[in-house]
Design goal:
The protein is mainly α. Helices cover about 80% and strands about 0% of the residues. The radius of gyration is 14 Å and the shape is globular.
């Protein structure tokens, strides 16, 4: 199975690790959830997963990634407005 994964599958897998890494970074207080870095990392991970879902669609997974993208963009917009 490991060798059956395509490049696009690996993009989604890396995206999952990116999102989990962002959560770990906030949980360990390495990154503040109030700063744009956390939201940019989540946005990047969600986009990577969404790209992989373009090739292997799954409605539920697409929806959650679109929600994560929306949350990240709204948070970044809120941060930019406060500056």
């Amino acid at each position: 199975m490991l060798f059956e994964l395509t490049f696009i599958d690996w993009v989604g897998i890396v995206g999952s690790f990116v999102i989990a890494g962002a959560y770990l970074a906030v949980s360990r207080v390495w990154v503040s959830a109030e700063r744009p870095a956390f939201h940019l990392i989540n946005l990047g991970g969600a986009l990577m997963i969404l790209v992989s879902l373009w090739y292997r669609p799954n409605a539920g997974a697409i929806l959650i990634e679109l929600l994560w993208i929306g949350i990240a963009l709204l948070s970044l917009l809120r941060w930019a407005r406060r500056r």
